[in-house]
Model the fold of this input.
Amino acid sequence: MYDYLIVGSGLFGATFAHLARKQGKRCLVIDKRPHAGGNIYCQDVEGIRVHQYGAHIFHTSNRRVWDFVNSLVEFNRYTNSPVARYGKSLYNLPFNMNTFYQMWGVTTPQEAMNKIEEQRQEVLKRMQSEGISQPRNLEEQALLLIGSDIYERLIKGYTEKQWGRKCTDLPAFIIKRLPVRFVYDNNYFNDRYQGIPIGGYNRLIEALLEGVEVRLNTDYFTHRDEFNALAKEVVFTGKIDEFYDYRFGNLEYRTVRFEHEVLDMPNYQGNAVVNYTEAEVPYTRIIEHKHFESFGEEVYQNPKTVVSKEYSTEWQSGMEPYYPVNDERNSLLYRQYKQLADQESHVIFGGRLAEYKYYDMAPIVERVMRMFEEEENEEDRRE
Done:
């Protein structure tokens, strides 16, 4: 008898298995995919580790989380500094003084602030003349936050491709704030620590699952009762609506698909991530994977490179679900499933799909660490 049957070998499941094993618990991890690691899995192509399911950068300000993952595998110095391409123009992200200089030629923070405020006031006056007091959609919200130039060039087309809907049809709350920095800083994250495991994310997953029994190509739902009988508790990281046989209906997701290509050149775009913000360009971004782990002259040591065009699309049955659609309908539907989940005494739900919530990687690790700490504290109190 296992202590835990863990359904899914992604970061939540693998971290849970690791910490449970350290407590002396016996775990069985199953995954329907032919590989462990969930969406952080990397595939070696021409000596380059390709992020098979999209770019993943680990970032956190929590020293304990950073020390934990680095105790398993050393992380490199990669700093996420994406570039946005609109037509033939390139803009640094996130929005900072480099972006504003590229957009308007301004060189001081006050000049940039004045330009943004001038455009915001134009939008505000127009809305007031139409009797609108609050932004009714994402477009109006973004215009009020950042003005028309940045919205039209860097937000509108990209967002519509990501969501598959017009910005005027998306709710305003999706963009509550936009990160605007009036300094020359292209570091996308504000966290103290960031990087990528040296040797790729597979090394992290392998370290987390060391000594744990793992069965791949194994679908929990094909023999659900048999699997449940193997363990005292189930840790479920899959889709919560599927767990309950879609009792209240299907939750919606966004997904992405990739076109991977090996190129006979050492350096295609000079950056790991370039966003394509025009609506007319069908893909949202191009990822050049070697830049996640090769820096400076190291880039030219491999004469080939691998690029991936990323397309955002509506999820359909059979596709990998990536992101929850946090609109009113889906939020209400999830709450119904959550009420059922809260009544389960031998099932733990965790991760993006089971909690119908967007997670970065570090908060996933932190959440699992806290679960075990709270359990240990509870045991101490009982003693």
